[in-house]
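Q: What would this chain look like folded?
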Amino acid sequence: MDEPIAGPDARVTALAEKEGLGGWRMAAANVKGGFRKRWGDDRLHLYENGLVVTAADGGEWVRRWDSTAAVLQHLVTINGGAYRDATYTLIGRDGAALSVGRGGNGLFRRDLDRLGATSHTRGPYIVLEGQWGPEIQQGVTAVQWPLALERLRRGETLDFGPMSLDLAGVREGKYSASWAEIGDLHRYDGKIGFLGTDGRALRPQASVYRMPNAYLFMALVNQLKA
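A: My prediction, written as C-alpha cells:
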C-alpha cells in the first residue's frame, strides 16, 4: 500500500512526552479490507526509548525499554516467505505483558508465569513487523547490556528461558557447551543453536519464541566466544 501512515497525534505525543520516550522514529498500523486493503485505525508509534500502542476501541499502552524485563518474538513464515505469525510480547517489570503483531505468540499461560507475567493483554495486529520488531529487541538489549555484563563478571548465571549462560559456557537442560567449543551461533528453522569450532552442530539449542531477550542472548554469546 502506498498510503502513508500518519505520525503521532496530540494524544500520543502527550503520552510519549509524559513517559520521556524521546524522539519519534516511525509509525505502523493494522491492515483492513479485502481486495482493496488499507490501513486500519490501530497504531504502533516507535520512539527512541520505547513505544506507544493505540487501538481503535480506545486501548492505550506505553512501554519504555528500561521498564521492560523481557521481550519475546514469535515469527512463523509460510514456506520461508511471508509471515503467518509475527508477534512481539513485552513483559514489564511490573508483570504486565502486552502482545502486539499478527497471529499468536506461541506461549502458554505457564510460560508467561515463569517469565514473571502477572497479566497479559492481546494488543492490535500491527504489521510492518520487520521494521519495528528488531527495534524493540535492540532497544531492550541496549538497556540491559551493561547490567548483564556486570552480573556475568560477578560469576552469576543468566537465564534465557530454556537456555542459560555464564563465563564457562552455555547450557540447555542436560546439554552444555564451553566457550572454547563454540565456533559460532547457528539460527535455523526458528531456533538458536551453535556450531562447534569444527563446524559441527552442538546440542544446546532452543526455539526463539521461548527465549526472553533473544537479541541480548546472541549479543552476549558473540562477546563471550570471541
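The mean pLDDT is 95.
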